[in-house]
Amino acid sequence: MNTIPSATFYGSSLKGYTPPALRENARKLYGDASNAKCFCFPTQSAALEAAAKLPALQLFSEDLDTSGTRHYLLATYEDFWHIYKKRAKKHFYEVIRENVSCKLYFDLEYIRTCNTHVQEEELIATISKLVASGLKQILKRKESSLLPYLKCLVLDSSSNEKFSKHLIFPKIVFPTNRIAGKFVWKLLQMSDSCSNLLVLKPAQNEMQTVLAIDLSVYSRNRCFRILGSSKYGENRPLTIGQTFDQKLFYETLVCYLHSDDVLCIDDVQIGYIQSLDDNSLSSTLKGYSIQKVFHDAINIPHSKGSPYPLIDKFIESVICDGQVKGSIRSVLFLSSSQKLVYNIQKYRYCHRIGRHHKSNHILMIVELNTMLYYQKCLDPECRAIDYRSPPRLLPEQLWSEFQSITK
Ligand SMILES: [Zn+2]
């Protein structure tokens, strides 16, 4: 078997690992057209298990027929792109894994003939306004300073009968998909313009009032259709109004996080958004089980950790001394650069000044491709010089959480 190059990319000197995948099958399906490689899995659970051990790889799925049969592919973004652009028939989805960080995104849909009153532009404008005012409440900043972060990509696969768009905000990110869902839910609760977001949907001889925003996309391990792809058996791909290159394609992927020039909104901050007193939304949407969808996001205290609990534990052991015991407030997993960014609370020791900062928080960064970790800082002076402490190696016993796919 071939060795996948750049062992360091997958973690250097790590134990060999071959996921229980149909590797030859994958090569037959996807390997001929290029040197790009990916692993192919018949079930989501097998794919998720392998993905957890291979942080360099991303999970995608592909429709195999109209009945919902899919298989799952693990590949780097780079390899996936090479495979994807050469596929004539594209029926692919990004799997938005639990505990993996993601961008803010919305899935909008309704049947046009039942909703001739709906102004499409107004619908999108209402959502953008909601996002802006939610951010304003959280960050206590002027809207003008937030403008660069409000960039919104609109992907369209509408037909004459059906309105169907994805909105992606590439510069607003969340530690997990569930927290993204919670943010969206809070936006809806603070809104007095929700009526702009309601549409009619035919259901058992009557019309139901529902949200144009599909809230089920924020549930666990969702498959979310990607730019250029149609559902199987349909020729209605998601388009962006122009031909797209690799860079634009990546920007539209919900889990592709590379830059840290983004607004990261965590669970604590979402709590700063003021809800309207009466739960007018829920009563408007009588019969619609939003509560059920959001039960998890709102009521179950979720883990503040990354997909790598042993690394979280190690970082917790680093952020304490005789006097102060710090804790992890949130973790961002930058999947494309394979970094974990820990937002630390209470413990503020900065190596640049050799003492604790008075008020500014520190960050701990773990690079999964090199197994190094170091400290960064939210202090303006430290940020100005992009300060990072001398890197140190993670303890060797943690490396076994990751395994290379060289064999
Ligand atoms: Zn500092």
Automatic annotation (TrEMBL):
Please report the name of this protein according to its UniProt entry.
DNA-directed primase/polymerase protein
Gene Ontology biological-process annotations: error-prone translesion synthesis; mitochondrial DNA replication; replication fork processing; response to UV
A GO molecular-function descriptor: chromatin binding
Top EC class per UniProt? transferase
Native source organism of the sequence: Galdieria yellowstonensis
Q: Which residues belong to any copy of the C962R-like N-terminal AEP domain?
A: 76-240
- What is the superkingdom listed in this entry's lineage? Eukaryota
Its Gene Ontology cellular component terms are: mitochondrial matrix; nucleus
The record's EC number reads 2.7.7.102
So what does this thing catalyse? DNA(n) + a 2'-deoxyribonucleoside 5'-triphosphate = DNA(n+1) + diphosphate; ssDNA + n NTP = ssDNA/pppN(pN)n-1 hybrid + (n-1) diphosphate
